[in-house]
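Ticket #4471: structure output looks truncated?

Reporter: J.K.
Steps to reproduce: submitted the chain below (342 residues) through the standard prediction queue, then opened the result file.
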Amino acid sequence: MGKKIFRVGYVASILFLCLGIVVPVKAQNSGFSVQVSPSPIIESIDPGVSKTVELKIRNQNTQKETFKMGLRAFGVDNNSGEVQLKNEEPIDVVNWVTFAEPVFSVDAGQWFTQKVIFDVPKDAGFTYSFAITVSRANPVQEAGGKTTIEGSVAIFALLSTNRSDAVRKLDISSFISKRKVYEYLPANFLLKIKNSGNTIVQPTGNIYIQRSLNSTEPIDILPVNGTGAYILPDVTRTLQSDWSKGFPAYKDTSESGKKKLFWNWSDLQNLRIGHYVAKAIVVYNDGARDIPAEANIDFWVIPWKLMGGLFVIAALVITGVVSVIRKTMKVARKKQKDDATE
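Returned output as attached by the reporter:
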């Protein structure tokens, strides 16, 4: 067999597109170890303007390495939200996104500053999303025809252009509870948000847990999009929120996700029972002001086992009290009867 080289596992700066967290990215695979910052790259640029962004790359390998820069297109699965990195270049930006040094060398443990140049055309569209890749310029090939694994790191870039006709618009596609009735918390909510505009949007907001729709004081507040995610045009993102502050409540006890019911008696005042309303308020900026979108659902928390146990205890107590009362009354009547016969 001839020698084969496989590209595997681009280490993404985000597992789902549009996570707006700026953190260093690391890729480690078969001797390939690189750290990159910032990640992701999020920029707003005027059409017809050139802008340079610095990307810091650290060689964490034990020897000097020569790297090459690249561009890759990617898509997003609307059902799972998973990023699907493609093998081809992003044809809409490949002619105006360049690198000051497409191929460069870095000593072991050292940093290199790469300049990414965005020469945005005057007739640019509203938004662009693509991945910038860093990989070995000369992939290592093992002797004897063995398979060689080439590692890479991908940094996602989200660019929006400051066009006057840009439309920023979000809609709540659906807001549901995984169950209508819960025995114990947590209660799980799925909020689907669609970007129906033509440029990237970053939603914020909260889910308010209330006794009724018009309650003025919520029982609890859950953040929406706490990671600061961006949503691309015509993409629907599903955000999950869990309400777990209550007594008793299930909690994860292992990495396998196995849950155990915890009875923290210090939280007894947070006993959850009865009807509740979850009100989701999502806010986005349309370029001029903040626009809210709202949806709500109702659900129940009925700890039937706990209620059944309390019912049995109450029934036993009532039975015992009734029995004592009857016995006392029987003794009293007997004594009264004995006194009358004397």
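Triage note (M.O.): checked the attachment and the full token line is present. The first strand starts at residue 5 and ends at 7.
Status: closed, working as intended.
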